[in-house]
Amino acid sequence: MQSRSKVLFLVEVAIFAALAFVLDLFSFKAWAQGGSISLQMVPIFLMAFRWGWKGGLTTGLVVGLLQLVTNPYIIHVVQGFLDYPLAFTLVGLAAVTAGSARKAAKENNRTKLVGFLIIGTLIGSIGRFASHFVGGMVFFGSAAAPGQTVWAYSLIYNGSYLLPSFIASIIVILILVLAQPKFILPKK
């Protein structure tokens, strides 16, 4: 039975990572240098709530690697690492509330469930933002307007697409999980 659970986990990582990749194809490109408003974080969040740390971080890493090899905007190796593998892996930090969210779902406590989903999604979004923010300050600060600090530039640039992506993601997650709480309850 243990190997069945491992196979199920790997299959779900592959399916959810592929879904994230497809969702990114239907994104709104906010900036020419990168950054788009999309629902691509939703599958990573769902895997984080469903499988915990292992599911969220692994799915995020796979999504980041897919982004890295398909259509990256890279000016430096470190920036490429920050903006792709690390940024999407950090979306998996949503798993910090996974156990509590699953418990609330099992107990049919919708108020707590909503709270844990929002907090987890916010934490995962902040993780991704932090990685892009550092990369933006270090590698794209020269694009700041005259007199604008590099941290303000990176905050505005990355916040302009990640805040709407967070809002859209949490709306979709709440709709999905409240309609069908089993989305976050793995069959092990």
From TrEMBL:
Keywords: Membrane, Transmembrane, Transmembrane helix. Signal peptide: none annotated. InterPro entries: Thia_Transptr_ThiT (IPR012651). It holds the Pfam family Thia_YuaJ. GO terms for cellular component: plasma membrane. The chain crosses the membrane at residues 7-25, 31-49, 56-75, 81-101, 113-141, 161-179. It comes from the Bacteria. GO terms for molecular function: thiamine transmembrane transporter activity. This is Thiamine transporter. It comes from Terribacillus halophilus.
